Amino acid sequence: MSDDSSGSIAARNERGADRGVDGGTSRLRGTDRSAVSESTTGATAASRTASPPGEALLEIRGLKKHFPLTQGIVFKRTVGHVRAVDGVDLTMRRGETVGLVGESGCGKSTVSKLLVALERPTDGQILYKGRDVARMSGRALKAYRREVQIIFQDPYASLNPRMTVGDIVSEGWAVHADIAPKKGRLQRTQELLDRVGLNPDYVNRYPHQFSGGQRQRIGIARALALRPEVIVCDEPVSALDVSVQAQVVNLLEDVQDEFGLSYLFIAHDLSVVRHISDRVAVMYLGSIVEEGTDAQVYGSPSHPYTQALLSSVPLHEPHLRGQKDRILLQGDVPSPADPPSGCRFRTRCWKAQDICAQEAPALVDRGQGHASACHFAEARTVVPVDVE
Ligand SMILES: Nc1ncnc2c1ncn2[C@@H]1O[C@H](COP(=O)(O)OP(=O)(O)O)[C@@H](O)[C@H]1O
Ligand code: SF4
Ligand SMILES: [Mg+2]
């Protein structure tokens, strides 16, 4: 991923390119941004009757999702469970971006599906503004489903190919009709397209007529259409070319303040999350192994897994390249159907001792200033860069 400044320039370039596909210019260009955001959202962020800044918006407590492993075609027997999510604790405050990072298969998407109520937890709780989502029904559940939106990883699979872009963006208003009166829906849809950097005249086009980056912009417009408070971004840039990744991240950052959003930003690459997150949680085999501010996790990682992940992040500063602490991880990620006893990282950890096989380390601060799930947590500088 490119650095901040080149990313911003690239974003402006792509926005220009998006609009310029047919040489058309946006008739909404130059519209006052705050006016657009107010009319597209129907309310400014400040005018919402919501929890004050800094207050916990989403609290995940001991969250578990175990999928049954079955055998047999006619008579299915459960022969085990895939512990996709196995005890996750995480808090997201209003206006905050929490980065969730970990290798493929560690349970990130399952956490995101649980958060948007596409899956039901096996155990644990998700509290939204203090209320247990599992106990919500009727109006409260409907409001929750509107306020917590998701952007998916694959912009090719997440948009219905038979629907026009306009129908995709406005689809949610069929259920949440109060957000957009029928009369003004076309204009609102076009305002949203304009806001995410697409030509509003493309409202009748189909997803296949757009590039990957543009499709992800459509996904963002679809989420914004419902005036959400939280957007779960499940690897929103992982499927995009590196040159386009920064543009989409910049767009998400741009709309965050304007729409009063909080993000859970998921990625498998620490460098992507570093750009956007206030706090970072590192996940391994179904649970969080380290959590702290971006400065803590990048500047003084104290869990061996975080240290190994950081050591594999490419450095853009040529003069620093030789100074990186290289840690090569041995072995593969164990199966979540049969995780190791004690510390789940022990089969790949160079610091493992007997206690690591016997006792699962709690995610607590052992003197490093932030939480780490390691019996022998020890801050180590892996990447010699100014994390600010
Ligand atoms: N519906 C499901 N049924 C069975 N296993 C699943 C299901 N969804 C995910 N898994 C398994 O759960 C684990 C975590 O998957 P996922 O949450 O998609 O990880 P990530 O998003 O971090 O790559 C994987 O081993 C995956 O195969
Ligand atoms: S608890 Fe033990 S095995 Fe786990 S990360 Fe720490 S040292 Fe390694
Ligand atoms: Mg995933």
From TrEMBL:
Biased amino acid composition, Basic and acidic residues: 12-21
Cross-referenced Pfam families: ABC_tran, oligo_HPY
InterPro entries in the record: AAA+_ATPase, ABC_transp_ATP-bind, ABC_transporter-like_ATP-bd, ABC_transporter-like_CS, Oligopep_ABC_C, P-loop_NTPase
GO MF, one annotated term: ATP binding
Keywords: ATP-binding, Nucleotide-binding, Transport
Swiss-Prot/TrEMBL GO biological process terms: peptide transport; transmembrane transport
Domain ABC transporter, first and last residues per copy: 69-310
Keyword Nucleotide-binding part of the UniProt annotation: yes
Region (Disordered): 1-53
The keyword Phosphoprotein is assigned to this record: no
Ranges of compositional bias, category Low complexity: 34-51
Signal sequence, start to end: none
Family per similarity comment: Belongs to the ABC transporter superfamily.
Protein's name in the database: Oligopeptide/dipeptide ABC transporter, ATPase subunit
Source species taxonomy: Bacteria, Bacillati, Actinomycetota, Actinomycetes, Geodermatophilales
